[in-house]
Amino acid sequence: MNQQQEFPAQNAYLSAPEAARFLRVKPATLYAYVSRGLLDSIPSEVGRARRYRLADLERLKGRRRGEEGSLLRGAEPVLDSSITDLTASGPVYRGHAATGLAERGTPFESVAELLWTGELPSDPPVWPEGDTALEHVQVRLPEDASPLARQQLAVAALAPLDPGRFDLRPEAVRVRARRVIRTVAAALALGQRDKTRLRAALAAPTVAEAVALALGGKRQRRHLLAIDRLLVLLADHELNASTFAARVAASAEADPWAVVLAGIATLSGPRHGAASDRVEALVSEVESARDAAAVVHDRERRGERVPGFGHALYPQGDPRARILVESARSLGARSHPERSVLGLLDEMAAGGRPAPNVDIAAVALRVALGLPRGATTGLFAVARCAGWMAHALEQYEAGFLLRPRARYRGRSVASAGS
Asked: Is residue 364 part of a domain?
C-alpha cells in the first residue's frame, strides 16, 4: 500500500508509531520534535497515547516545499532562541528593531551588550583598548590577503595568550567578547605598509573608529556614525550559516575565541559573507564600463543573476539595505566609484527588478566612506562577532550538544550470499 493510500485525508490523525514511520524517524525523535515545539500532538480518545495531525507532519517533513532535510534548509526552526526575531521590517534584537537602533544612532557597543544581556545600556559602554600583543604578530601576508584571512590570523594568534579563555561563565565570556571584537576590528590593519594604523586602531575609543583607522578611512563624525550604523544592522541575523557554525562550536564548549574562528571560517564562503566579493566585482565592472545599464543588460542577456539584489527572507525588500543606501547617498557621490555604484542601484530600481539586499548596500556604503575595495567582508565579521557571542552565551547556558542526525541514503548491507 502506498503512503497516499495509507494516509488519505489531510485532517487525519496518526498514532505515534504511524507518525514516526511517516517521518522515517525513531519514536524518540518524534517526541523530541514535540518537546522542541516543532510538532503538536493531541490526546487520544483511549488511554494515554497521543495523536499527530497529518498536515502538521507533512509541513514538518517539508513536502509542501518539495524539500528534503527542510529542518536544515530554512523551512523549519531547529532550536529556540531569545536573541533575534526576523520580521518583514528587518531583524529585531531582544525586542528592539535593528533599523530603529541604527536610525537613532545607537552605538555598536550598546547593541552588542543588548544582544548579550537583553538590556540596552542607557549610556554608551566604554570598552577597554585592544590587545597590544597583536602588534607582535609577525607573519608574511600577501598584499591581496583578504580581510577575513587577516582576522582569522589575529584571533588564532591571540587565543593562546588568553589563559582565562576556558572560563565560560557569562560575565567572563562577555569580557572576552569585547576583547575579541576589538581584535577583529584592529586586525583589518594587519599586513599594511603603514604600521601606525594597527597601533591607532587598538587604542581607538570605539569599534567604529578602530575600523576607520585600521582601513585608512576618515574619522569625521558623520563617517563614524555611518560605520556604526552598518555594524548595528549587521550585528546578528538569527541562524545564518556562520552563526549556526559558531553555535555548534559553543555547544561543544569551545572557548569564545574558537567560536569566532568557526564563524569567520564559515563567513568566508562565497555563498555567505564573501557574497559581497561578487558584488565588488560587479561594481568594478560598472566602473570600467561607465554605464550601469549596459552592464545590467549584458548580464540579463546572458541569463546571469545580478548579485546583491533580492533576498529570500525579505521579498518586499531588505529593510537594512534601505538605511545603508540612504547613508551612502547622504555622504555625497563625488567620485566615479560612488557614482557608479549608485547608478547601478538606480538602474535596477528603474527596471522594476529585485530590491537591493544588504550585500550591495554595504558595498555602496564602503565606497561612499572611501574604504578600500574588499573591506566589506571584514566589516561583516566585526559586526557579526556580536551575534556570534550572543548565540555562544545562549548555547553555553542551554548546555546541550548540537548533534543533528543524517538520513542515510547509501547502499544497504550486502547479504551473506552475495
From this structure: yes
Query: pTM value?
Result: 0.82
Minimum mean pLDDT among 58-72, 90-104, 206-220, 271-285: which range? 58-72
**Do residues 40 and 118 share a domain?**
no
Examine the domain organization and report whether 279 and 240 are in the same domain: yes
Considering 57, 72, 87, which residue would you say is the last residue of a domain? 72
185-201 pLDDT tens trace = 999 999 888 889 999 99
Query: Grid coordinates in use for 111?
Result: 547593541
Total count of domains within the chain: 2
Q: Which of 173, 233, 121 is nearest to 394 (CA)?
A: 173
Inter-CA distances, 81 with 231, 262, 402, Å: 21, 20, 14
Q: Based on the fold, state whether residues 40 and 172 are members of the same structural domain.
A: no
Query: Quick check: is 416 in a domain?
Result: no
Q: Does residue 58 sit in the same domain as residue 89?
A: no
Q: What is the pLDDT of residues 382-403, one digit of tens each?
A: 999 999 999 999 999 999 999 9
| Angle of the 336-350 helix axis to the 358-368 helix axis, nearest 10 | 150
Q: pLDDT category, 416, cuts 50, 70, 90?
A: low
Catalytic residues, by residue number, are: 272, 311, 359
Whether 200 and 174 share a structural domain: yes
Q: What is the mean pLDDT of residues 336-350?
A: 88
Measuring CA to CA, which residue among 77, 115, 117, 123 is closest to residue 93?
115
